[in-house]
Design goal:
five-stranded mixed beta barrel; alpha/beta; single chain; 7 helices; Rossmann fold
Length: about 280
């Protein structure tokens, strides 16, 4: 982890050489949610391939672009697509972008994803605010020697998702009259979808949705001292006894149907920061 600080600095320097604002919010846009960047008054859009040490995004619907600009009057930096561990990257490298956003000045990290609904009360296109998570990936981005410049050796994870941001997200959904749940996200390594037995197991563990991302990003956010908010779009239904084979393109389309709702929450969260 000791060389990580040099990689963070090199990546950040390339971005800030062109865009000198200090972003208050970092936004990670998951599967089917990339169109939210159209809401940002962008000053700089740069491919991950142009940023030193940045991993490349290869998943469906992930363009691999970093968008720097303003949402309202608040400077933000948004990832239009993320890198997953199943793409072959180490957890440490895949989470480098979160570190870079922190280096640039980010205080709040908003992470979105497309997920499979395990809770029978959830419907396609619903939004869930993540209250807690279960890490079943078998990997952790903090493994290895710790660099105290980046965060503590043993960060506390009893409340990884900021309660005030959760309350704001739920209040926004209520004000705009759309379904928004509060629940637990289970993270699996992927890239395969789960078996029926695994879906039953996850539900019995207390998971409401399942996905292949987010948890490593939030672990790094907590380690770096960021306030984190997680938002899941329910993009397929994972009821073990009524299971249909998922299709990645249908999952993307279902997530896209939830994008306006997630976008409304993100805009409200950022707008509230204007007065702080």
């Amino acid at each position: 982890m000791l060389q990580l600080a040099r990689q963070i600095a090199a990546a950040s320097e390339v971005i800030t050489r062109t865009w000198s604002y200090r972003p208050r919010v970092g936004i990670i846009l998951g599967t089917g949610l990339g169109n939210f960047v159209e809401q940002i008054n962008d000053d700089l859009t740069i491919s991950y391939s142009e940023i030193p040490h940045f991993p490349r995004s290869t998943a469906i619907g992930h363009k691999g672009l970093l968008v720097c600009g303003r949402l309202g009057s608040v400077p933000v930096v948004a990832m239009q697509g993320r890198c997953h561990l199943y793409e072959g990257y180490s957890a440490r490298l895949a989470m480098l972008p979160v570190r870079v956003m922190r280096e640039m000045g980010t205080e709040v990290l908003i992470v979105s994803n497309a997920s499979g609904g395990l809770n029978p009360a959830y419907a396609l296109g619903d939004v869930m605010v993540i209250d807690d998570h279960i890490n079943l990936m078998g990997q952790n981005p903090l493994m290895g020697r710790n660099d105290r410049r980046l965060g503590p050796r043993f960060p506390d994870m009893c409340r990884p998702y900021d309660r005030d941001l959760i309350d704001e997200a739920l209040a926004t959904a209520s004000a705009h009259n759309f379904a928004c749940h509060r629940g637990v996200y289970a993270a699996m390594l992927g890239p395969n979808y789960e078996t029926r037995a695994e879906y039953r197991f996850l539900r019995q563990m207390g998971a409401d949705v399942v996905g292949m991302s987010t948890v490593p990003e939030v672990i790094v956010a907590v380690h770096a001292g960021l306030r984190a908010l997680g938002l899941s779009a329910v993009a397929n239904l994972c009821y073990a006894d009524r299971l249909h084979p998922p299709d990645a393109y249908q999952v993307t389309a279902a997530a896209e149907s939830a994008e306006p709702k997630i976008g409304q929450i993100v805009k409200s969260i950022v707008a509230n920061l204007e007065t702080v």
